[in-house]
Amino acid sequence: DTPSGSNTMQIGSTNTATINLGVSGDTINVPAGVTIANAGTATGFGAAGSIYFLARRGNSGQSVSNDTYTAIQMDTEMEDSGSVFDPSTYKFTPGVVGKYFVFAQVAFSVTNGTDWDQGTVILDKNDAGYVDTSFKNSMAYIDRRSSGSSTSSFYASQIIDMDADDTVRVLFQGNWSGASSSQTVGYGKSYFGGFRIA
Fold first, then answer.
1. pTM above the 0.85 mark?
2. Long-range CB contacts (< 8 A, 24+ apart) of 135-139?
3. Could you tell me which of 139, 140, 151 has the C-alpha nearest to residue 114?
4. Which of 72, 92, 136, 196 is positioned for an S-S bond with 51, CB 3.0–4.6 A?
5. 94: burial class by Cβ within 10 Å (0-12, 13-18, 19+)?
């Protein structure tokens, strides 16, 4: 009904904590032509982009041994929509069920005479490691020149279905000449990010 003498109807008052519309199984219809104007905080509507983060490897390198699955320490936050990324564990935990686009690049400062055979970036869901075949990972083959230093970078991206308490971190496994040698992750060049799409 239209309130007499007013163009606004308020439901609830300043001492109302929660207002419920309907019960489980009900349908609340918003007719065509109606505008919903939100000046507050909307939760639970699955808004794309409402959850996002971007982190990178900080101000020092990280040594990665040959042919070893290693968690890359993305320890510096650049963006975080609501503490969904933990720079101490290097993990993304969305807090909300949904589909997420997640991506990572791992870059290495490669020294003289080191030849790559292959490298794999893994978006590791729930610490399942490389045995988790529920989604694809990237693999790149890079032939290094025989002299001079360079940067080798490896990238992976994927759409991942996640529960609120699921986690994703970045693993890397690489093979190069010299089984006892290691490579150094380039700081500032390696990053990890993601955002909600549905």
1. no
2. 135/159, 135/160
3. 151
4. 196
5. buried
